[in-house]
Amino acid sequence: MNVRVVFSGRNYHWGSSLPEQIALSDSTTVDEAIRVLESGLPDGQRLPGSCLLAVSGVHLGTIARHPSRELQDGDELLLIAPVAGG
Amino acid sequence: MNLDNLSQDECQRYARQIGPGVLTPEGQRRLKQSSVLVTRAGGMGGPAALALVMAGVGRVVIAHGGKLISPDLNRQVLGCEQALEKPRAPQFADYLRSMNRHVEVEAIDHEPDDEQSRQLAATVDVIVSCPPTFQERLRLNRAAVDAVIPLVDAAQWGMSGTLIVVAPGRTACLRCVYPEDPPFEELFPVLGAISSAIGSLAALETIKILSGVGKPLYGHLWMIDGYQGRSSSITLERNPKCPCCGNVGVRHPRETLRG
């Protein structure tokens, strides 16, 4: 199955090093998809635990704290690193 | 038009924003009767406060400490060259007053602490949260939840920004969204063009809430990524065990009860 990936928010330029779409086996979970994405980051970098997670527009939690969720073909995995600046 | 509590001068001022698809006469009247706290009034809060003053919100309170410095002027539209090294809040308030004599503008020359945030929340109808730190945002969120008034949270980084509109007791609050304080960087990169865009959208949400016109963004996070040229909307989930809003029952924000 294919899942679209959107990375935005703080350090959105990291998104250029992430694929816009990833091919995953059926029943892949969000956590497994995140590990796939992190394997493509340079120098062993990890996505921040405070990063908000949403699957196809529905809020799931943060990378550090979210319920388990299986992805489906055509889902969009949205990762938003929190921004604050005033 | 039933604009009986608006002067002829005010009717003329707001003539272009009353009509189909914009404000109703009743909505304009509600704006005049409303109060909003905007903190801080810099890159996003400045344009937000300006739009609220120009739209005719009756009372706008701005809070912003410190003196204006040169790097502020890439985004802080209420400042100017002549105001450099002067305290921000009174300068910003003077500019706002110069834009609409029908609006009461109050200036607080510091960032409100917990107690003052609570006190201020009790005197306004909406809080527009635009501070640079999550500590301040969560403080304003707490004050809004305690007072059961809407919070419009605007945030930015670089060429991107987010909006979250909270209806305490009905939709996710900031603590539901950020169960742990996210990291904060003191000198975040930012372009003034996105600050003004996000600030103006925060004002738009506030005007919809206060006037009763349109559909506020309650319960959603709106991400505008100017760098990548895309926007996303997330339906936010309320945490029933949220330490901030978990005990707030289903109550309507105050402004929806007003006539």
Report on this model:
The complex is a heterodimer of chains A (86) and B (259). Chain A is mostly beta strands. Chain A has one domain (2-81): Ubiquitin-like (UB roll), CATH 3.10.20. Helix content of chain A is 10%, strand content 30%. Chain B has one domain: NAD(P)-binding Rossmann-like Domain (Rossmann fold, 3-Layer(aba) Sandwich). The two termini of chain B are 17 Å apart. Chain B is an alpha/beta fold and 259 residues long. In chain B, strands 3-2-1-4-5-6-7-8 form an eight-stranded mixed beta sheet, sandwiched between helices. In chain B, strand 4 (126-129), helix 6 (134-147) and strand 5 form a beta-alpha-beta unit. Chain B is 34% helix and 17% strand. Classes of the chains: A mainly beta (86), B alpha/beta (259).
Query: Distance between the terminal alpha carbons of chain A, to the nearest Å?
Result: 40 Å
Which stretches of chain A are low in confidence, meaning pLDDT under 50 for 5 or more residues running?
none
- What is the chains' assembly state? heterodimer
Could you tell me the CATH topology label of chain A.
Ubiquitin-like (UB roll)
Largest sheet of chain B: 8 strands, mixed
Q: Could you give the order of the helices and strands of chain A?
A: EEHEEE
